[in-house]
Amino acid sequence: MHAYLKPIRALAGLLLLLLCASIAAAATGDYFVYIGTYTLRRGKGIYTFRFSPATGKATAVSLAAETPSPAFLAVHPNRKFLYAANEHDGPDVAGKNSTVSAYAIDHHTGALTFLNKVSCRGEGPAHIAVDKTGKALLAANYRSGSLALLPILPDGRLGEAAGFAQHHGIGPKPRAEGPHAHGAAFSPDNRFALVADRGLDQVLIYRYDRRKGTLAPNDPPFINSTPGAGPRHLLFHPNGRILYELNEPGSTVTVLAYGAAGGTVRRLQEISTLPAGFTGTSATAQLQIDRAARFLYASNRGADNIAVFAIDAAKGMLTLVEHVSTQGKTPRDFSLDPTGGYLFAANQNSDTIVLFRVDARTGRLTPAGQVVEHVPEPTCVVFVPAR
């Protein structure tokens, strides 16, 4: 690096930190926290509570909408609508024509008003994602190994599936499973839809036509993951040039270079999410990146912790910082609050949401001393501004 570039890059980094700090300072209003759950035991649907970042306090939990196993939630870009993937159609029922439900959000009370639900043309939707314009939703059907594209109407309701892709084949050994579409993501420019298929050990790539609302296989149509890795979720770096792949049974994160022009991906790094010497059974669940794109977080179910990684600003590569216990069992999901100051860990088998403070400088997590209890089987955490 030329000597004269070093102070310029240092200044740019300082300005980015100051900008993020000012955004966080401005975003000090309260939020409604919506919790997706399984309803196989005591759960009844989507729960909510109010959270104040200024005080770090949460109110009591209440039921916002009764609906079967809303295991994953997504918020519309305009923050007016909430969508839920109904992974199970009822108690102990794995329906073969599962649904996605739509709700209108009351920003004053946190109440949800049911709008409609539509078939996702498959079984067991494990993940949903809304496109950047808020005009379409992807549903990854885990049990049937398929992907559905649902139009979002101007009033927030969902239309019947306009695009559909059925995955085929058997993944490589050692697991050699059939297709299990698990995580979906739209590319930053909204031109491609990418799907992590846990069963095929592949990340599949589709061209997304926003005007027609259709999907078509890209060329090349997929990239193979490490055999046995089992890709679960995908997350783009804010720069749009790096894609992170979270692998479930493999307990790793794969760093991929993303080519926006052709929707191509290329492997750069693969790093374990588990502590050195860990010998138990564990599987990853969720990953998130902080607003300054300095740290990446991943949860481990079994090890029951959050792995914290530092992100190389130039290449997007990861370096382990620490592992922090989630103070509960099976952290199926977690989420950074909109200010970036807190991380909410959803412990599915402990029925708790545990709050951690986030050190913006180091990325490290410290228990905030607050545990939201009596949330049955929490599986997803999302935030919506309150008024």
Summed up:
The chain has a domain of 101 residues.
Averaged pLDDT:
92
| Multimerization status | single chain
Amount of beta strand? over 45%
Q: Which sheet architecture does the biggest sheet show?
A: 5 strands, antiparallel
Shape: globular
Order of helices and strands: HEEEEEEEEEEEEEEEEEEEEEEEEEEEEE
Discrete helix count: 1
Distance between the termini: 48 Å
Spans with pLDDT under 50 lasting ≥5 residues?
Answer: 1-27, 91-95
Number of extended strands: 29
Explained architecture:
This protein has 387 residues and is mainly β. It has a domain at 167-267. It has one helix and 29 strands. Strands 1, 2, 3, 4 and 29 form a five-stranded antiparallel sheet that branches. Strand 18 and strand 19 (252-259) form a beta hairpin. The longest helix is centred in the first third of the chain and has 22 residues, at 5-26.
Task: Describe the protein's topology.
Blueprint: H1 5-26, E1 31-37, E2 45-52, E3 57-58, E4 62-66, E5 70-75, E6 81-86, E7 99-105, E8 112-119, E9 125-130, E10 136-141, E11 146-151, E12 163-166, E13 181-186, E14 192-197, E15 202-209, E16 214-224, E17 231-236, E18 242-247, E19 252-259, E20 264-272, E21 283-289, E22 295-301, E23 305-311, E24 318-325, E25 331-336, E26 342-347, E27 352-358, E28 365-373, E29 378-385
Antiparallel strand pairs: 1-2, 1-29, 2-3, 2-4, 5-6, 6-7, 7-8, 9-10, 10-11, 11-12, 13-14, 14-15, 15-16, 17-18, 18-19, 19-20, 21-22, 22-23, 23-24, 25-26, 26-27, 27-28
